[in-house]
């Protein structure tokens, strides 16, 4: 498979240096030349449907539940018993993912008629958005050289007033940590964000109408995020390769390295789970694919996965260590 990214070059620092030896502080410990590399050219590990760990069989149906599932809601606990196994994509809460090196978070958010609180959703309700964001802020307060990307991906049951409430929550929690939007992403480096300034959060808000006039929120086109939407491993990697081949210069890129089971697949494996049937079975192929990638222009940037802790966080370590390939070339002006 062709790779359109920067090739490793001999010389400079030892390319075998383990950049993942301290997952909690991996950005802080990067060599200086990588801190001066645009973040759109770094390899950054993320999680898919990031904050679903608190979904339980007691969780109510969320507004993103498919209509067919909503029609079966009369089955009550029996329906939700099966749904939990196919709705949870992560084991760990925000703080535990951050400690394990995750720096990109994918948020799907829904309203709830009985409260003004906003919730993480994936078929069922998970934690409140506020509790998740406060966990992130607490980590950043004590890890001042680490940076996160929060991708507010989908909004369910939202009116403009709900968007306004969410945006105010983001501003209230992160305040001066929020990096203002700019069309020119080549200057955005870890050094620029955390040394020249004290920025630690890039907040992507994928409702351009709702975010209009908000300088602290980043639009969708800054972080293209193609969805492979397949349960086939071969189709997944073809889609990921196609996404990187067509990657626009000057913006970030998100590779969704996840299998998406359609209804028939879930029905066939009803008594199993997303973790067993998709995440675990993808693990080896995912690892092989990642090891064959390189960051840099046209290369792998942000990648997301389910159940990031599998194989002792091998996925996270593999992605971080891809940045070894940039060490000898990071002084090149992109």
TrEMBL record:
<dbReference type="InterPro" id="IPR051057">
    <property type="entry name" value="PI-PLC_domain"/>
</dbReference>
<dbReference type="Pfam" id="PF00388">
    <property type="entry name" value="PI-PLC-X"/>
</dbReference>
<dbReference type="GO" id="GO:0008081">
    <property type="term" value="F:phosphoric diester hydrolase activity"/>
</dbReference>
<feature type="domain" description="Phosphatidylinositol-specific phospholipase C X">
    <location>
        <begin position="32"/>
        <end position="206"/>
    </location>
</feature>
<dbReference type="GO" id="GO:0006629">
    <property type="term" value="P:lipid metabolic process"/>
</dbReference>
<dbReference type="InterPro" id="IPR042158">
    <property type="entry name" value="PLCXD1/2/3"/>
</dbReference>
<dbReference type="InterPro" id="IPR017946">
    <property type="entry name" value="PLC-like_Pdiesterase_TIM-brl"/>
</dbReference>
<dbReference type="InterPro" id="IPR000909">
    <property type="entry name" value="PLipase_C_PInositol-sp_X_dom"/>
</dbReference>
<protein>
    <recommendedName>
        <fullName>Phosphatidylinositol-specific phospholipase C X domain-containing protein</fullName>
    </recommendedName>
</protein>
């Amino acid at each position: 498979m062709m790779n359109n990214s920067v090739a490793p070059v001999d010389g400079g620092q030892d390319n075998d240096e383990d950049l993942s030896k301290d997952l909690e502080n991996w950005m802080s410990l990067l060599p200086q030349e990588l801190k001066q590399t645009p973040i759109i050219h770094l390899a950054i590990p993320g999680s898919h449907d990031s904050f679903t760990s608190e979904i339980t069989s007691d969780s109510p149906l969320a507004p993103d539940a498919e209509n067919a599932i909503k029609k079966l809601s009369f089955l009550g606990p029996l329906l939700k018993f099966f749904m939990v196994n196919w709705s949870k994509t992560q084991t760990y809460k925000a703080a535990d993912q951050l400690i394990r090196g995750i720096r990109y978070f994918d948020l799907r958010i829904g309203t709830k008629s009985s409260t003004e609180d906003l919730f993480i959703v994936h078929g069922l309700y998970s934690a409140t958005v506020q509790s998740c964001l406060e966990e992130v802020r607490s980590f950043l307060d004590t890890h001042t050289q680490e940076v996160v990307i929060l991708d507010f991906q989908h909004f369910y049951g939202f009116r403009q007033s709900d968007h306004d409430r969410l945006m105010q929550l983001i501003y209230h929690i992160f305040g001066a940590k929020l990096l203002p939007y700019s069309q020119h992403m080549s200057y955005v480096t870890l050094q620029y964000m955390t040394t020249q300034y004290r920025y630690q959060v890039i907040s992507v808000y994928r409702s351009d109408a709702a975010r209009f006039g908000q300088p602290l929120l980043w639009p969708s086109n800054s972080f293209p995020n193609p969805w492979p939407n397949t349960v086939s491993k071969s189709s997944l990697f073809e889609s990921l390769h196609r996404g990187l081949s067509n990657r626009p210069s000057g913006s970030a890129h998100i590779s969704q390295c996840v299998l998406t089971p359609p209804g028939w697949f879930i029905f066939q494996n009803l008594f199993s789970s997303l973790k067993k049937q998709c995440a675990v079975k993808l693990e080896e192929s995912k690892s092989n694919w990642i090891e064959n990638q390189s960051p840099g222009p046209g290369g792998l940037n942000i990648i997301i996965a389910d159940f990031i802790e599998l194989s002792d966080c091998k996925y996270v370590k593999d992605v971080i260590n891809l940045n070894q390939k940039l060490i000898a070339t990071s002084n090149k002006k992109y």
